[in-house]
Each structure stands twice: as structure tokens, then as C-alpha cells.
Amino acid sequence: MAALKSIHIKDTVLRLTITMSKLNQACFLLFDHIIYAHNVGLISTDKKKWSNISARFWVFSLILNLARNTYDIMNIVQEEMRRQQLPKKQDQQVNGDTTHSRRSSNSQNTNVVRKIVMQNKPVMLDLVKNLADLILPLNTLGKVNASAGTQGFLGLISSSIGIATVWDSSLKLVP
């Protein structure tokens, strides 16, 4: 259903990344259900084979989500840079005294990054969730070797962000 809704998004990059991600997520969940049916004894199948297929769809879905996050962040940074370059009234006259607001470029860059993060929480939370999730299927595929503790911690981060977006809908990334 989400893939059908996303095909109407006007922005081509968002339309492609979101739609393809939703389709891959549907495949991942389908194969994950096959694994579940095997685990509860409903069917007998090659669990490792289906786990690998499921993990591949999950990885591709996460890569598409990360591409979307990167695209969103690039647009946010470009917009902020445009705002920064708008002519500002930098000199203020106070009792004949001129004050200039000058900061070091590192301090100014830190403030810009902080401003971008704080004003775009849904994008940043989605980015962190996708990065945390990425290790899990990569571990299943044998591309990384994450301990059970690391996997649990990353799952906790991802789940906590998921719960936060349900609890506070303003933190949910849309479209």
C-alpha cells in the first residue's frame, strides 16, 4: 500500500527511492514470514537460504532509505546555505557604537550543523535508525561480524526511534 501511495510523489528521487524501498521491504517481510513459518513448524524449508534472501532485500531497502536521507540532507544544507547568503543587516548602531557579529568559521559551521539537526529531527532520526539497522542484515549475510550485544544495542536504538516516531508523529519522516 505504501508503495502505491509513493508513486505519486512529484520529486523523482524521492518517488524512486521510497517506492523501491517499500517494494524491497515487502519482499523482505514476505521471506521473513517464510522463516517464521519454518521456525514454528508450519513448513520445512532451508532457513539459511531464505534468511540470506530476506537479508538481501532488507539491505537494499536500507540502502535506498539511506540514499533518500542523503538526498534530504543535501537539500536541507543547500537551503540553509542559500539562507546564510541572503543579505543581512550586520552592523547595528547602538548609541553611535557599531557592533559586528563575527564568529570563527568553525563555530559558525558548528552552529549551522546544530541548527540543521535540531530543525530537521525526522530526517536525522531516520538516518540514525537506518544506519543502526544496516548492520543487522549485513551480519546475516556475513559481510560484518557483529556480536550479539552489538546487534542488541543497534536493535534497541532502531526500536527506540521507531517507538518515538509512533509516540510523537512530528518525528516521523514524511512522505
Automatic annotation (TrEMBL):
Taxonomic superkingdom: Eukaryota
Principal place of residence: membrane
Protein name (database record): Peroxisomal membrane protein 11B
Gene Ontology BP annotations: peroxisome fission
GO CC term, one of those recorded: peroxisomal membrane
Compartments where located: Peroxisome membrane
Keywords in alphabetical order: Membrane, Peroxisome, Peroxisome biogenesis
Polar residues bias: start-end ranges: 92-109
The UniProt record lists the keyword Plastid: no
Pfam families cross-referenced by the UniProt entry: PEX11
Signal peptide positions on this chain: none
Stretches for region Disordered: 84-109
